[in-house]
């Protein structure tokens, strides 16, 4: 089986486009580094260590070193190839990056939220690669770690059927993870590829509240802990949990707790 060498820059990461016309075959081969093959257009097949997978837009394969693979395109197929040397991270995350997940080639069919995050991160990497400033290599490593984190967190869930209960759980998990961002129902709906009305309906069906109400609950619970356990300024807490203005934070907190953040801090720190 043929070895194909991929030359990497000194920071150990290279992202490039791989185009395949209909009927094109990339014969079986392997590399000495990791690759992620992400489909952005078309349809085809990928053979990973003897197992065949159909690949289409937003699906991808993680290919580990010395893993045999080949590609056959059913139509015009465009892949983004992210090649990287995992040892370029040094000791950072050494245990996690040597996890079994990164030692076995796998095929992934990510959910819409993960797909959206992957596409945006790959776009950022393409930009950094062309900007060629003194921090580009550093930025590319950060973005690659984000992609690897998405892969770790998706894990085996990538093959589970996307039912309404799973969609609701993904919305909840997304809010739990990104509560500090200026989230809206429209943004969450766009990541899932469904309407904002449908997002509200399915979330309320399983959690008996809207995503916006749940986001407020998450933020206020974190604010309560910060008010009680830290001496951070209230404006800093407001910023940290994702509110754009202090007045919005005060209003949300008072509507939830019936007292202001200042009053809550005094009462609870005195009690402590």
Offer a few descriptive terms.
single chain, 272 residues, alpha+beta, 10 helices, 10 strands, 47% helix, elongated
Describe the structure.
With 272 residues, the protein is an alpha+beta fold. The protein has helices at residues 94-97, 112-131, 136-154, 164-178, 185-192, 196-207, 211-229, 234-240, 246-257, 261-271, and strands at residues 2-3, 13-20, 25-30, 34-41, 43-48, 51-56, 60-63, 69-73, 77-84, 106-108. It has a five-stranded mixed sheet with strand order 1-3-8-5-6, with no helix packed on it. Helix 4 runs parallel beside helix 7. The chain is elongated. The model is unreliable at 156-161 (pLDDT under 50).
* Strand percent estimate: 15-25%
Structural Rg: 23 Å
Q: Encode the helix/strand succession as letters.
A: EEEEEEEEEHEHHHHHHHHH
Number of H- or I-type helical stretches: 10
Low-pLDDT runs of 5+ residues are 156-161
Shape: elongated
**How is the largest sheet built, in terms of strand order?**
1-3-8-5-6
Backbone structural class: alpha+beta
What is the percent of helical residues?
A: 40-55%
Q: Can you summarize the main beta sheet?
A: 5 strands, mixed
Overall pLDDT = 87
Could you tell me how far the N terminus lies from the C terminus, measured between alpha carbons in angstroms?
68 Å
In total, the number of strands is 10
